[in-house]
Write a structure and sequence with these properties.
- By secondary structure, the chain is of the alpha/beta class.
- Helix content is about 40%, strand content about 15%.
- It contains six helices and six strands, in the order E-H-H-H-H-H-E-H-E-E-E-E.
- The chain has a four-stranded mixed β-sheet, with helices on one face.
- Strand 5 and strand 6 form a beta hairpin.
Length: about 210
């Protein structure tokens, strides 16, 4: 008998333990939505002076302004996704700013603030088979920009997930490596290294 294949579709609620949803709901994050949290991060960056380097502070201020503007504008449309769709259909250059805001926000929250929804680890643990492997018959699809599922998978040494775009490896855009496969339908927010004129640079973008 042919073995059945299983595909799990993960919605925004799958990351609710780490991030607010796109719309306000009562619960762990109170009355805050994703746009509000992005705006708040921008306000936080403005309130601190990271270094005496004025050029660096100017760059941080520019990033903070992008975060604040993105949060404010997204709230006018009800959520960040509808705002992004509006910018896309109008060919508005602010779409690039929105991508920068989302990418920095998720990178900051997950790498700097260590935000993680434990349910992802519970979910993967429930799927691992007797041979300590991630079943080849199981695939994952997510709407989320975050890399919560990758972080959870990385906790298992037995899972073949070599490419991780936050440790100096090349990015595998298919997000599929050996036994582990997850597809990000809306792209994934993160950072990745690239070389230019012999220097190693870091780019933050939706990839």
């Amino acid at each position: 008998m042919e073995e059945h294949k299983i595909t799990y579709i993960l919605g925004a609620g799958a990351s609710f333990g780490a991030f607010p949803l796109v719309k306000k709901v009562d619960g762990k994050h109170g009355d805050m939505n994703l746009a509000d949290d992005i705006k708040m991060l921008g306000e936080h960056l403005i309130s601190i002076k990271v270094t005496s380097d004025q050029k660096f502070n100017t760059a941080i201020k520019a990033l903070a302004d992008i975060l604040i503007d993105t949060g404010k504008e997204a709230n006018k449309f009800g959520n960040i996704d509808t705002y992004a769709k509006y910018l896309y259909h109008n060919g508005d250059s602010k779409l690039d700013s929105l991508k920068q805001a989302l990418s920095f926000y998720f990178t900051w929250k997950q790498i700097v603030r260590k935000k993680f929804d434990d349910r992802y680890l519970h979910f993967i643990t429930s799927i691992i088979d007797e041979s300590h492997k991630f079943p080849q018959k199981v695939k994952l699809i997510t709407w989320n920009y975050d890399f919560q599922i990758e972080t959870a998978a990385k906790a298992y040494k037995s899972i073949n997930f070599r490419q991780f775009p936050f440790e100096g490896n090349e990015v595998d855009l298919s997000r599929s490596n050996g036994d582990f496969c997850v597809i990000h339908l809306n792209s994934i927010a993160g950072l990745y290294p690239y070389r230019e004129k012999g220097q190693l640079l870091i780019d933050i973008d939706l990839i």
